[in-house]
TrEMBL record:
Its EC number is 2.3.3.13. It is found in: Cytoplasm. Mg(2+) binds at D41, H245, H247, N281. Its cofactor is Mg(2+). It comes from Massilia consociata. One of its GO terms (molecular function) is 2-isopropylmalate synthase activity. Keywords: Acyltransferase, Amino-acid biosynthesis, Branched-chain amino acid biosynthesis, Cytoplasm, Leucine biosynthesis, Magnesium, Metal-binding, Transferase. Pfam families: HMGL-like, IPMS_D2, LeuA_dimer. This is 2-isopropylmalate synthase. Pathway: Amino-acid biosynthesis; L-leucine biosynthesis; L-leucine from 3-methyl-2-oxobutanoate: step 1/4. Belongs to the alpha-IPM synthase/homocitrate synthase family. LeuA type 2 subfamily. Catalyzes the condensation of the acetyl group of acetyl-CoA with 3-methyl-2-oxobutanoate (2-ketoisovalerate) to form 3-carboxy-3-hydroxy-4-methylpentanoate (2-isopropylmalate). InterPro entries: 2-isopropylmalate_synth_dimer, AIPM/Hcit_synth_CS, Aldolase_TIM, IPM_Synthase, LeuA-like_post-cat, LeuA_allosteric_dom_sf, LeuA_N_DRE-TIM, PYR_CT.
Length: 560
């Protein structure tokens, strides 16, 4: 049960004494070095760890999107992990510009096995860690600070010794004081300085210092303060690559990573779509795309984000949430009417090479290989804009505004009745039933028309009335006028729109007429035909039939 007084059990995170912090005034202007730990931290958190075959597919996808540093496993943990690293090395599957990273605890036998796993690679980074926070020192290790420092120092000495025996590989070192974010800063500095004094990095051969929020325990600004503090106080700063490894326990890993980069971090470790222990590692996709939407090339290519997501879901056997930033099924979808309206108007004025300014869409879905078709979907929360957009996009029908209002009532009725989403095809079927398919009592069959400047338009019209053929004649000052006169009905044309559907020989005309039939309210009719005049006749017949069906009026009541 939740406590009335949580302070009895939990304490607030202390602030970092850094009154002159610089990071709040900085902006991110270039991407950090990306390191994917999907195959290690992500994999170790899965219900079923990946098979070698899945790991390889994942690895190749990471390479394809442009990740240059890939943590490929914890080789001393299992034969599977060890063999996977050997396979990458022996089968020459690591591209020249990609560096693999192998993780190990700072324990002799594990370090030996880890170095062995990567031998023969062109480049490899041995990533060694030990936990340094007070609770780990007390509870897990039962050790004092100096003994904890010795674990890291001895581990580093052994790695240095072992890698020197295998000069054919260009080795690097990454050191992680695990649980850094809940550790006293001066102790973190002490242990990192001790490790770097053994490794002796240089600016040309830097050492990676990875400062994880192993468990996210504070607001992101505190993490940023911790990173800035370390950047200012560490020895040999110019020979260190400062890396961050945020977890998402408070749901703020992305913010923590971004503020940490502002605070001086050069490198970010994370997983695609935020997989990883508990609530996950920081999501590299969101970080990269956040940069992209600021006009900064993240150096990663998510042009086909659906394919990336599909592969990750398959390998992790975990779904990506439908509202996951940039990648979720629903992130480029609007159901609510006012959003749909604004998006539709935004698309209409957005120029292909201009700055992106479509309301409610922080990014052009096309940049991620997502299609516009999926942007707008219709349910009971939608207004006219959504269905109008779908009819235009999918069927080339540009409904005039007042027809949109009229037809949206029919769509709304169906949405309310079913309580479900209505697909574009269903909307089109409803539109066809409502405006195009009512062939009774009147049905247009054919016409002959003569036009001269002295007498206007003369028309001879074949129609079916209650399925019985009739030949009618009429004249008027234009085709529609002549047609209406031939029908002999009390019709006033209030509004008229037309447009082409498609191009070339297959083009058809869509015609929308708004009529007042008898004394009734105005209503629309729609006609589609390869001939523009015929389309307008069909539209008039559509409106008349709709009026009769809607009002139940007898035909005689609307005779002219
Ligand atoms: C925050 C992170 O994600 S760190 C990465 C975590 N990932 C994994 O643990 C996945 C792979 N791990 C494994 O397969 C195993 O844990 C192994 C092979 C590494 C070690 O297995 P085991 O020797 O059986 O130890 P176990 O798993 O119980 O780990 C606990 C032991 O490691 C010790 N230990 C933990 N971290 C470290 C470290 N960095 N350096 C030295 N010793 C360590 C603990 O003190 C404990 O020792 P104890 O048994 O003497 O009390
Ligand atoms: C090994 C370290 C970097 C880790 O995974 C963590 O602290 O979360």
């Amino acid at each position: 049960m939740m406590l009335k007084n949580p302070a009895a059990k939990y304490r607030p995170f202390p602030a970092v004494p850094l009154a002159d912090r610089q990071w709040p005034g900085r902006a991110i202007t270039r991407p950090p070095v990306w390191m994917s730990t999907d195959l290690r931290d992500g994999n170790q958190a899965l219900i079923e760890p990946m098979s070698p075959e899945k790991k390889l597919r994942f690895f190749e996808m990471l390479v394809k999107i442009g990740i240059k540093e890939i943590e490929v496993g914890f080789p001393s943990a299992s034969q599977t992990d060890f063999d996977f690293v050997r396979m990458l090395v022996e089968e020459n599957r690591i591209p020249d510009d990609v560096t693999i990273i192998v993780l190990t605890q700072a324990r002799e036998e594990l370090i030996r096995r880890t170095v062995e796993s990567a031998m023969g690679a062109k480049r490899a980074i041995v990533h060694v860690y030990n936990s340094v926070a007070p609770v780990f020192r007390r509870v897990v290790f039962g050790m004092q600070q100096e003994e904890i420092v010795q674990i890291a120092v001895k581990g580093t000495q052994l790695i240095k010794e072992l890698v020197a025996q295998h000069p054919q590989t260009q080795w690097g070192l990454e050191y992680s004081p695990e649980s850094f974010s809940t550790t006293e800063l001066d102790f973190s500095k002490q242990i990192v300085d001790a490790v770097s004094s053994v490794w002796q990095p240089t600016p040309a051969n830097p050492m990676i210092v990875n400062l994880p929020s192993t468990v996210e325990a504070s607001t992101p600004n505190v993490y940023a303060d911790q990173i800035e503090w370390m950047c200012r106080h560490l020895e040999r700063r110019d020979a260190l690559v400062i890396s961050v490894h945020p977890h998402n326990d408070r749901g703020t890993a992305v913010a923590a990573a971004e503020l940490a980069v502002m605070a001086g971090a050069d490198r970010v470790e994370g997983c695609l779509f935020g997989n990883g222990e508990r609530t996950g590692n920081v999501d590299l996709v969101t970080l990269a795309m956040n940069l992209y939407t600021q006009g900064i090339d993240p150096g990663l290519d998510f042009s086909d984000i659906d394919a990336v997501r599909q592969l990750v879901e398959e390998c992790n056997q975990l779904p990506v949430h439908p509202r996951h930033p940039y990648a979720g099924d629903l992130v480029f979808t609007a159901f609510s009417g006012s959003h749909q309206d604004a998006i539709k108007k935004g698309f209409a004025v957005q120029k292909p090479d201009a700055i992106w300014e479509v309301p409610y869409l922080p990014i052009d879905p096309a940049d991620l290989g997502r299609s516009y078709d999926a942007v707008i979907r219709v349910n009971s929360q939608s207004g006219k804009g959504g269905m109008a957009y779908l009819l235009a996009q999918e069927y080339g029908l540009e409904l005039p505004r007042r027809l949109q209002i009229e037809f949206s009532r029919a769509v709304q009725r169906v949405a309310d009745e079913t309580g479900r989403e209505i697909a574009a095809a269903d909307i089109h079927a409803l539109f066809s039933r409502e405006y195009l398919e009512q062939a009774s009592p009147w049905n247009y069959v054919s016409h002959r028309m003569v036009e001269d400047s002295a007498h206007g338009v003369q028309i001879e019209l074949n129609v079916a009335r209650h399925q019985a053929p009739q030949l009618l004649q009429g004249s008027g000052n234009g085709p529609i006028d002549a047609f209406v006169n031939a029908l002999g009905l009390d019709i006033r044309l209030m509004d008229y729109h037309e447009h082409a559907i498609g191009m070339g020989a297959d083009a058809r005309a869509a015609c929308y007429v708004e009529l007042r039939v008898g004394n009734g309210a105005t209503l629309f009719g729609v006609g589609i035909d390869s001939n523009i005049v015929t389309a307008s006749f069909r539209a008039v017949v559509s409106a008349v039939n709709r009026h009769l069906a809607a009002t139940g009026a007898k035909e005689q009541a609307i005779a002219a």
